[in-house]
Amino acid sequence: MSRKTDTIRPTPLTRLTRRAVIGGIAGSALAGCDAFQESEAGRAILFSGEKAHMALQRTIMDRNALAREFTEAEMSPVFRANGTRDPDTPSYNAFAAQDFAGWTVPITGLVDRPMTLTLAEIRNMPARTQITRHDCVEGWSAIGKWHGPQLSLLLKAAGLKTNARYAVFRCADLYNGTAYYESIDLIDAFHPQTILAWAMNDALLPVANGAPLRLRVERQLGYKHAKYVQGIEIVESLAPIGGGKGGYWEDRTGYEWYAGI
Amino acid sequence: MADSDSPAESRRAIFRHRLATRLWHWTNVLAVVVMIGSGLMISNAHPHLYWGQFGANFDPAWLDPPRFPGWITIPTDYNLAMARRWHLTFALLFAFALLVFMLVSLINGHVRRDLRIRAGEVAPSHLWADIKAHLRLRFHDPDKPDAYNILQKLSYVAVIFVLLPLLVFTGLALSPAMDAAWPWLLDVFGGRQSARSIHFIACWLLIGFIIVHLALVLLAGPVNEIRSMITGRWKVPHR
Predict the structure, then answer these.
(1) Closest approach of A93 to chain B, Cα-based (Å)
(2) Which of A87, A130, B58, B126, by CA, is between 20 and 30 Å from A60?
(3) Using CB atoms, which residue from B33, B45, B177 is nearest to A138?
(4) B191: left (phi over 0), alpha (psi -120 to 50) or beta
């Protein structure tokens, strides 16, 4: 920042004082904000917005309203990979060395027919191709082409019990020793654009983007799009999963579970 | 220009601001302060702005905003999750308070009586006369002291009916679910990353308005002006 030098140059002391005064006022107001968010009531108020947004959005939105799909000409030249770029665990590396030939996805929990699908079976299922925008919670967006079966096909094959409420995704990448996990409710699980992608931009899914399988849940932010999916668990409540908030970042940092906002 | 509250000077007091206006003003002060503080923290998470549907690290940014220091962000220390909690919760207060204020102001005549811009007021000669009056720190028409001058009207109308709704709708365009619900948001703003850029520009225009607004409150007599926005009663200046 450049500052014009006037004929009367403020002494370092007055400059310091002015900054101290402004900083002091702003600082005490913001310290109040910090104290508010640390208090139980304050936290409850701040965390209530998520549920209000979700209720409002679900009210005005058709449950099958589609995220915009783009043309090939509108795709990002480079699709930024984020989060884990390589799980690099001994078991993952062993799968990767065999082009994920032995990769399986058990579907467990509140299903009529628990099953274990192989990667080959998933790749042989009818697939959807969609060019969609990926929005990171940090603010950036990238447009890529995704290809894979609709999650609803897998869930219908397994058959959900009547008390099923959420689909939990178990992942092969570790964060601080914890395997990544995410969850969505059945409205998003059965949304037509919710797919288990095994190809991206007309090639097999790269390791950096979640090989061999990643979730696409197009009306929510990027951290919901679980990579390296190696299990789907159908549950009635998220309380017993991890810290109880439904996802790794939700539990660890307080990101919204409903990431449509 | 400073307030002189000596009892010898019997200044006429008039009722200037309705309850709805006062309530909204202070609700909006709270909401806007939180929105700006938390918004600057969210900007710190990815301080690059793009035009178009997409934009990430490998794409050309038209602006790389500075990293905003902790004394101006909410919360103080880098925390995107909590900044988003603040921003998204207070966004509801900000947007719905604005909506209610707009509706009430249409019904109670505030818009028609106080904010409506008449053709004669935007004639260049009248605008120029008002600019000159401002430079002489004369903000009120002696014949109609309670009426807003044209520069006031233009800035209030621009902020209430253009800038604040623009912040709401560009904010909605950042929501991936809202983009599915209301795809026209992407068409109106030319894509999510354009909406993000416009959101940021609108924020700085609003900060600019706040600075000028506060400066004029100081010049017009801060005690009288702030009291009028609390109690509604405002003392007519002598000249």
Answers:
(1) 28
(2) A130
(3) B45
(4) left
Residue A133 belongs to domain spanning: 68-252
B17 in reach of chain A (CB within 8 A):
no
What residues of chain A, 126 to 155, have a C-beta less than 8 Å from chain B? 133, 135-143
Q: Residue A126: which CATH number?
A: 3.90.420.10
Query: From CA B101, how far away is CA B23, in angstroms rounded?
Result: 9
Distance CA A192, CA A219 (A): 11
* Same domain for A167 and A79: yes
- Same-domain check for residues A206 and A105: yes
**For A78-120, what is each residue's pLDDT tens digit?**
999 999 999 999 999 999 999 999 999 999 999 999 999 999 9
Q: Measure the CA–CA gap between A183 and A222, rounded to whole angstroms.
A: 13
Q: Which domains does chain B have, with CATH numbers?
A: 13-235 (1.20.950.20)
Q: How many CB atoms are closer than 10 A to CB A58? A: 16
Q: How many domains does chain A have?
A: 2
Identify whether residues A113 and A196 lie together within a single domain: yes
Kindly give, in sequence order, each residue whose CB lies less than 8 Å from that of residue A176, ignoring residues fewer than 6 positions away: none
pTM: 0.91
Tell me the pLDDT tens digit for each residue of B146-183: 899 999 999 999 999 999 999 999 999 999 999 999 99
ipTM score assigned to the predicted complex: 0.91
